[in-house]
Amino acid sequence: MKTVSILTLKDISYGYDGTKRTVLHNISYTFEKGKLYCITGASGEGKTTLLSLMAGLDLCSSGKIYYENRDIALTDRDEYRSKKVGVVFQGYNLLQNVTAAENIMLSMNIAGKQGKQANKVAYALLEQVGIDQEKADRKILKLSGGEQQRVAIARAAANGSPVLIADEPTGNLDAENERAVMDIFKKFSHEENKCVIVVTHSQKAVGEADVALELKRGELSLHTDH
Question: What does the pLDDT look like over 95-106, one tens digit per residue?
Fold first, then answer.
């Protein structure tokens, strides 16, 4: 299969406002469709910061990030986040007073994908990640941690985005749920040709990646043990 680049980092650096600390140093890397990437590294190395930049939640201090050869800093970042990239946050960030299915439909609405079939699409997405209709109609607080993580993944995918980014998606899960979540990510990348980028401390998760990367001292490189 021909490789297709989708997200390119070009000499990006990032420093926190009001400090002299630069956490990311001139990082260049190209991510491709159809692959599952895992980024690992010690706490404080800037992994979440890197994800935030790729998700368009923050801007680089220097350098550029290109989505399909377009500088995301020069695009409508609200549209970019709602249609081009789906984010799975470490704390899930689900609306707790509505059902799993309603979380998906609200995300689709934000992405401009509402319609008569929205509920069917929501249930189908949840089924795809292992949440049946009975659980899809439960309020979020009535679901287990592993089930909530699956809902968060389905919500991130609900906008049809070619890029999925996840911050420590298996950090609070047991081994069985961790394996299931990584299988979901592999399915999205290999069967739906998405670019999936996961930040993780888990060596088991890293072992499931097509490409394992390590962030160390502000630089991104191939993981030596993969």
Answer: 999 999 999 998
User: What is the 3 state secondary structure string of the chain?
Assistant: CCCCEEEEEEEEEEECCCCCCEEEEEEEEEEECCCEEEEECCCCCCHHHHHHHHCCCCCCCEEEEEECCEEHHHCCHHHHHHHCEEEECCCCCCCCCCEHHHHHHHHHHHCCCCCCCHHHHHHHHHHHCCCCHHHHCCEHHHCCHHHHHHHHHHHHHCCCCCEEEEECCCCCCCHHHHHHHHHHHHHHHHHHCCEEEEECCCHHHHHCCCEEEEEECCEEEECCCC
Q: Are residues 225 and 168 in the same domain?
A: yes
Per the structure, the count of domains in the chain is 2
Whether residues 122 and 142 share a domain: the answer is: yes
- Look up the pTM and report it: 0.92
Do residues 151 and 174 both lie within one domain? no
Identify the domain boundary among 160, 187, 210.
160
Residue 142: domain span: 93-160
Q: pLDDT for 45-60, tens place per residue?
A: 999 999 999 999 999 9
Say how far apart CA 195 and CA 4 lie, in whole Å: 10
Residue ending a domain, choose from 124, 139, 160: 160
Do 102 and 203 share a domain, yes or no? Answer: no
